[in-house]
Description:
Layout: H1 5-17, H2 21-25, H3 32-35, E1 38-39, E2 46-49, E3 53-56, E4 65-66, H4 69-103, H5 127-143, H6 151-171, H7 183-198, E5 202-222, E6 227-245, E7 251-260, E8 263-274, E9 288-291, E10 298-302
Antiparallel strand pairs: 1-4, 2-3, 5-6, 6-7, 6-8, 8-9, 8-10
Helix pairs in contact: 1-4
InterPro entries: NTF2-like_dom_sf, Tim44-like_dom
Protein name: Tim44-like domain-containing protein
Amino acid sequence: MLHATRDALKRCSGALWSWSAAQVRQLQPLSRQACAMRCVCGTRSVYRLPLHQTSCSRDCGARSLRGTAEDERVSGQLDSLLWSRLVQTVSAKDSEQDAAVARDPDNVGSSTPPPPPPPPPLSSVPLWRQLKIRWHLLQLQRVWPPPVFSPDEFLKGAQFAFQRVCAALIEKDIDALGDAVSDQVAKALRETIEAYERENMNVTMQVEQVGGAQIVNTYGRYDFERRLFVDIDVEFVACFSTIWKKPDGSLLKHEQNVWRKPVWCFEALLAERIDSPSSGLGSIGMPQMRIAPEPEWQLVHILN
Length: 304
């Protein structure tokens, strides 16, 4: 069943609290005297309601009830009957909902979509890594003073890039990303789309909410072309709703409001080496580097 039985039981249990004695008697033709327990004031119009609720019609304020063995036996039968009727009600509701999903899987949750649950907390970063990240960010701010580079503005741009890449993946238009992603990432996204197409599987994904983002790692990279890059790993907290359908259009799987924590790596050119006439085998000076005027961030890795 699409809906957990626990949630259905909660709904039906809430309804049981509001049942009256007359509604209880409609479940089975039990006599009024058989359902009654005798109050200490002598009144027999005291009914054993669901979930062991008791009341006296005279409102005498008595807190103790005395009943016979026959009263307890019939009350136990009534409890069993209520429980069986509860299970039947839950099964009927879930069967109707499953049948509606099978008839029209496109409208799953479209009428009254449940609100997304609260986002989970961001992953904890070790203290030694926090100090390293803070030191690297301070050095980057020395190279690119604000407003050229700011950690807060960088995270806002990373969240915008996250939503943009997800939208391109949903629309199957990877070329629209341009230079925002590396060739390796673009190739991986295209292969993902082609894999679903080979299986004739239709996947509909939607980003419901981006709960937050944080920097989880920073490091530098020096390539063979004598260029220095800075890489920043960003963890996102995003809520997804995904529907998988078979080739015949039937529903295969449906995930509604599922929180995930993907980690993406963004990279920017920090500096590149400049060849000078004085440089050579006999030169012992430090290589001359040309600092990039501003960072041009690019998504280079999707870690998970």
